[in-house]
Amino acid sequence: MAIPKVMGTEIEYGITVKNDRDFDPISSCVLLVNSYREDSTAKILWDYDQENPLADARGFQVEGEKYTPNQQENIARNKTLANGARYYVDHAHPEYSCPEVTNARDLVIFEKAGERIVELSRREANRVLPPGTQMLIYKNNSDRKGNSYGSHENYLMDRRTSFKQIVEHLMPFFVTRQVYAGAGKVGSENRSQPCDYQLSQRADFFETEVALDTMVKRPIINTRDEPHADREKYRRLHVIVGDANMSECAIYLRNGATAIVLAMIEDGAIDRDLSLRDPVKAIKEVSHDPSLRHEVELQSGRRMTAVQLQGEYLEMAQRYATGRELDPGAKEVLAYWERVLTALERDPLELADQLDWVAKKVLIESFMARKQLDWDSPQVHMLDLQYHDLRPDKGLYYLLERQGKIQRMVTDEEIERAVHHPPEDTRAYFRGSCLRRYGAEVFGVNWDSISFGIGDEPIKRVLMAEPLKGSKRHVEELFRASPTAAELVKNLKS
Amino acid sequence: MKILTTPRHSEQEHLRFVAAAESQQQQKRGGGDGGDEGGKGSGKGAQKLAKKGEELKEEMDALIDEIDEVLEENAEEFVKNYVQRGGQ
């Protein structure tokens, strides 16, 4: 029986400072992240002791140096938020990792809350920048000059499921889900075939099928084995193949459909061999064909379009769902998945109000027609970038949303609440609530631990190896009985 | 009546874009789960259709005007300078 698909996303944002000739991304990121002020979480460390990004899911440890910053640098680069998220500087990008959630709809809410948090800090940061300059942030994945930055998804999986099975059954799904999850891009890069417009921001950057790397020679399936949970029981599938979506519908279906397919893999419910002859080639072919008519080649010699291949997964999922208790919300995901594939088959333009790549394409083509521009025009490239601009008054995605040309999946009130409050049904609730209640005494945090420094006592680390424990239901009573951090630690020990 | 100067296929896309948004709003109002898009252009007379087409065109024009207002000036310089360090 598949385990609940606890999930989350990590978004690296693009950053620049307009009119600043000496723009330095790292100091700009540090300024940005530190411009987000939340009560009492300013001096908390990120706990690197628990991290191990060099462990490989295929069962070995890769040589390399583990990153551990000194205390001052640690605090300057890392913020843990009261909504359970981590907001930090990763290399030369600001990154927001949302708290753990149990379903795709909550994922949309908490990923969108991240956009607001970054935007709030951007506005604060701009107050201290020299007049005439302005910090700008983009939720996309490429500068269109061959540099890419990621948006990663994470899913909790059962350790007993072999990694080989995951790779085999996931590869064709990952190559083709961009038909709804692509964020759209003008042109191509990283030495892939020239094109006017493509479905995905990221497809051009995948050069191998399976590997541990995330920054060079990127793999379609990443093998990082860092569960941030009980490693005997769980793995965390670290997905690097996706785009940073603006559209709520695309975020919802991207995570929702993936979670269902992963549960099916755990339950051995994928009974069709859909292996592709050349996944690395196919992911680019699919991306470069907005007509969705291109047929990819399977190992078996069969050929089918990306939408048809997704349809195969959908059919298996519908059969899997029959008479079975699924994760909350999974039935709604299935229904929406079917509607989207049906519309894509008929005419992708029907989804101009739901999917990023279609919305952006229609917007750009309309603009081009009116202004007599072609795909090489700088204004067209600007439209592509500005679609992802986080400023509510300038970002073109938000403009479409404001004009009612984009369907919503969640409400502004839900997103606003998620800026300040953690999800209630995972350990993120315990993490976020501890920061809110005992912030001054929280010493360090990681996904699976939180440590307290109370007076002169030695640091006490509370381990959270179970992602579903620490929910409101589990700890509400404990919090009520623990007005102070000292009492919390005492009550936890007893 | 105004004469359109945009290429034919793009003009059609304008119309479809807005039509999709409109039909979606209708779905939202009905609270239904959508899917079926029957009744498109169900023959209420050519005049009415032409009027509708014109309204849609105006709506799209308004959107493009608004984009014009917010689009970064000096696009060429801006996109040239937008260079990121590679991330994950």
Please tell me what the overall shape of chain B is: elongated
Termini separation of chain B (Å)? 54 Å
Q: How much strand of chain A?
A: 15-25%
Helical segment tally of chain A? Answer: 16
Which two protein chains have the largest interface (Cβ within 8 Å of the partner's Cβ), and how many residues from each?
A-B, 56 and 40 residues
| Overall structural domain count of chain A | 2
Assembly classification: heterodimer
- Global Rg of chain B: 19 Å
Total number of beta strands of chain A = 20
Q: Sheet with the most strands of chain A?
A: 6 strands, antiparallel
Strand content of chain B: under 5%
* Shape designation of chain A: globular
- Mean pLDDT across every amino acid position of chain B: 64
The CATH class of the largest domain in chain A, by name, is Alpha Beta
- N- and C-termini, Cα separation of chain A: 34 Å
Annotation, overall tally of beta strands of chain B: 0
Helix percent of chain A reads 25-40%
Strands, helices and their partners?
The complex is a heterodimer of chains A (494) and B (88).
Chain A: E1 7-12, E2 14-18, H1 25-34, E3 45-46, E4 55-56, E5 60-61, H2 71-77, E6 78-80, E7 86-90, E8 93-97, H3 104-128, E9 134-138, E10 151-158, H4 163-176, H5 178-181, E11 185-186, E12 197-198, E13 206-211, E14 218-222, E15 234-239, H6 248-266, H7 279-287, E16 295-297, E17 303-305, H8 306-321, H9 330-346, H10 356-371, H11 378-386, H12 396-402, H13 412-420, H14 428-438, E18 442-446, E19 449-452, E20 460-463, H15 472-480, H16 485-493
Parallel strand pairs in A: 3-18, 13-14
Antiparallel strand pairs in A: 1-8, 1-10, 2-9, 4-5, 6-7, 7-8, 10-15, 11-12, 16-17, 18-19, 19-20
Helix pairs in contact in A: 1-3, 3-6, 3-13, 4-6, 4-7, 4-8, 6-9, 8-9
Chain B: H1 8-30, H2 46-70, H3 75-81
Helix pairs in contact in B: 1-2
